[in-house]
Design brief:
Blueprint: H1 3-11, E1 18-20, H2 21-24, E2 25-29, E3 38-39, E4 43-46, H3 48-53, E5 58-59, E6 64-66, H4 68-71, E7 75-77, E8 82-85, E9 87-88, E10 97-100, E11 106-108, E12 112-117, H5 121-128, H6 131-140, E13 147-148, H7 151-154, E14 158-160, H8 164-213, E15 215-218, H9 219-222, E16 223-227, E17 240-243, E18 248-249, E19 252-253, E20 259-261, H10 263-269, E21 280-283, E22 291-293, E23 299-301, E24 305-310, H11 314-321, H12 324-333, H13 344-349, E25 351-354, H14 357-387, H15 422-440, E26 442-446, H16 447-450, E27 452-455, E28 466-467, E29 473-476, E30 487-488, E31 493-495, H17 497-501, E32 504-506, E33 511-514, E34 522-525, E35 529-531, E36 535-539, H18 547-555, H19 557-566, E37 568-570, E38 573-575, H20 578-582, E39 585-589, H21 591-611, H22 616-633
Parallel strand pairs: 4-11, 5-10, 17-23, 29-35, 30-34
Antiparallel strand pairs: 1-14, 2-12, 3-6, 4-6, 7-11, 8-10, 8-12, 9-13, 15-25, 16-24, 17-20, 18-19, 21-22, 21-24, 26-39, 27-36, 28-31, 29-31, 32-35, 33-34, 33-36, 37-38
Helix pairs in contact: 1-8, 8-14, 21-22
Length: 639
């Protein structure tokens, strides 16, 4: 049995007593000072507006002061008193309360009720925040533009009044819960901010790349644009949603907060066009250039907005219009001085990159997946907040990615999202590549951006460092690579530890390439050792390539020919330097696809090896067949 259950059983066996607020407290109105009376030092005070904007439930120190002469005419709250804001613009906020827990009395402004009571102040504030009080408050609130609750009516409100010991235990539990909620809210807010930045980065990168490689059209070429009816409607308490400029926020429309119109008004405002699900609405005046998806066909447009009915993939177009590039274009082209407006003519001129339909679909799918994550967080989080005393805020996650064609190269700079940390860049690059592989089947990346490629080094004179000692380091030379072999498993010579310090160390699993004579031939190391300056080493590629796939890729005719064309000439001998290899543009399919390709190529190699003993002609035929399919499998159609 919990402590609270035990206390209730012991102290309230027949139930908790209810009393009116007037029975346990005296209620008075606040004073008459205004914000203009603030001074830097003086008598501490609380203005009613600060109850809504600055303070949570409990206050120990004030942020404002008034002069002592002004204070002489004011009303004061004593330590432990409740201060309630009794006027508001809406019924949901009116009667927000705080407990003054400071050591001295403070001046309180007008539009408040000061509640002096004999209960636990924190318990009383918690109760005044509860749904039980909210239900009673709605019955006594009055007004239209300004909602008010009079102190006389507050006297009639009923409050559950358990013994003080029970109140203290309830406060202890709620305080612990509030602390956990605050921590969680802070974490979720930070996560939301991070995810939003990540979403915006990927979204903008995606759209920017499409601008670079796709046909650019005007919005009027890919959508039909309808203006709103320039009339002021009559609103009602229920009915159809009317979407106004202020309802378009963050790409969404919160229907619960839209003003409503009756059917006859809706018929008038939709006579020209009925907004459809996934149409896009845009604000034109004031907070101009904001876009949102229409949630259903049961709404109409208010003044100063327009509707965009897409003729291409609507979700793709939505993400384009939400991008930073579109925002920058709007800011550079919108007209007006005192009040700028986003004219219909300008809306029609908004540039839109238009890739092929299948690319639009894939991009929309990827971005919608991130939007779904954000929506789940944004919609599901308030549900979690309700489950935890409605103290969480709903947040959305957008993780975006970018799209590119086979000619687009992912660079380190493009993945560096305002950070100099290598681990962050590495994580960004991996995420982008995986999403490119999902959308296009492969990513195109410069080899040097995903692997460490360095030239070997030779201690000189080399004879001084050659050793026969078992403690020596493997000294890898071209003669250690067998004919048609894939691996280097041993060396004929070793060098001393001193010589190794003057050379380039390599480890088991690294690749090495000969950079002269029969240059470009890849080998996989099965030993640790050192390489001279006639080799290039390739390492740190494991996050992107299965080693056997990389071996086949580097052995392919296409890459061998490219290295041959790029190799510089040193006399009569071609030399392959590290910069050439770093500049190679490699197509990277997913790891699963790499394994599938490896399986096919290995089967051809087995056939070739089996035939070598007796059928030279068949060997040659199979070898050519193997090379044909190898190069075919490693060549991807450009999108």
């Amino acid at each position: 049995m919990s402590k609270l259950s035990r206390l209730l059983k012991e102290l309230c066996p027949e139930g908790v007593e209810y009393k009116t607020l007037g029975e346990i407290a005296s209620i008075s109105r606040g004073g008459i000072f205004q914000k203009k009376h603030y001074v830097s030092n003086g008598v501490p005070c609380i203005h009613y507006g600060q109850i809504y904007t600055k303070y949570n439930l409990f206050v120990n120190e004030t942020d404002s002061y008034i002069d002592s002469e002004v204070a002489k005419k004011q009303k004061f709250a004593e330590p432990g008193d409740i201060i309630m804001a009794v006027t508001s613009e809406n019924v949901e906020d009116v009667c927000k309360s705080i407990a003054w827990l400071g050591n001295d009395r403070i001046a309180v402004s007008g539009h408040t009720a000061i509640i002096h009571h004999n209960q636990n102040p924190k318990y009383l504030v918690y109760y005044l925040s509860s749904q039980m009080f909210q239900d009673q408050k709605r019955k006594i609130a009055h007004g239209t533009k300004v909602i008010e609750v009079s102190p006389a009516k507050l006297n009639e409100v009923k409050i559950a009044v358990p013994p003080l010991e029970v109140q203290r235990e309830i406060v202890r539990i709620l305080d612990s819960f509030t602390l956990l909620t605050a921590e969680l809210t802070a974490e979720l807010t930070a996560e939301l901010t991070a995810r939003k930045k990540q979403y915006e980065f990927y979204r903008d990168y995606l759209i920017k790349k499409e601008q670079d490689v796709s046909e650019m059209k005007k919005l009027a070429d890919v959508a039909i644009i309808y203006d709103s009816l320039h009339q002021t409607p009559s609103y009602s308490n229920s009915g159809y949603s009317m979407v106004r400029v202020q309802d378009i926020k963050g790409g969404y429309i919160n229907e619960d907060k839209t003003l409503k119109v009756e059917e006859n008004v809706w018929n008038l405002f939709t006579k020209k066009y009925v907004p459809q699900l996934n149409d896009i609405v845009v604000s034109r005046v004031g907070s101009y250039g904001n876009f949102a998806l229409i949630p259903n066909n049961k709404c109409c447009l208010g003044q100063n907005v327009a509707i965009i009915h897409s003729k291409i993939n609507p979700k793709y177009l939505y993400h384009v219009l939400m991008s930073t590039m579109t925002r920058q274009w709007i800011n550079n082209n919108v007209k007006g001085t005192s009040q700028k407006s986003f004219s219909l003519a300008d809306i029609k001129r908004v540039p839109v990159p238009v890739p092929k339909e299948n690319i639009q679909q894939r991009i929309a799918e990827v971005l919608d997946n991130f939007e779904a994550i954000c929506s789940n967080l944004k919609i599901g989080l308030p549900a979690e907040i309700d489950a935890r005393q409605k103290q969480y805020e709903y947040y959305r996650d957008v993780l975006l990615t970018f799209a590119e064609t086979g000619k687009t190269i992912l660079t380190d700079r493009q993945t560096d999202r305002q950070t100099d940390r290598q681990t962050d860049r590495q994580t960004d690059r991996q995420s982008i590549i995986k999403l490119l592989q999902y959308v296009f089947g492969y990513a195109v990346v410069k080899f040097g951006d995903i692997a460490s490629i360095t030239r070997g080094a030779s201690p000189r004179p080399i004879k001084r460092y050659i050793t026969s000692s078992e403690q020596g380091i493997n000294w890898i030379k071209i003669g250690d690579a067998g004919i048609n072999t894939k691996y280097i498993t041993q060396t004929a010579e070793r060098i001393t530890i001193e010589g190794a310090e003057k050379s380039r160390k390599v480890k088991k699993g690294d690749f090495i390439l000969s950079n002269s004579m029969s240059f470009g031939r890849p080998y996989i190391l099965q030993i640790d050792g050192c390489i001279h300056d006639g080799w290039l080493s390739i390492s740190d590629f494991e996050d992107y390539f299965v080693p056997d796939y990389l071996y086949h890729l580097l052995s392919s005719d296409s890459l061998q020919n490219e290295m041959g064309k790029k190799a510089s000439f040193g006399g009569a001998i071609q030399n392959l330097n590290a910069e050439i290899v770093r500049s190679l543009e490699l197509q990277i399919p997913s790891i699963d696809e790499q394994r599938r390709i490896i399986d096919l190529l290995d089967k051809f190699e087995v056939i070739c090896n089996d035939l070598q003993s007796g059928i030279p002609a068949e060997i040659e035929k199979r070898q050519k067949q193997y090379e044909y399919y190898r190069d075919k499998l490693l060549s991807f159609k450009e999108l």
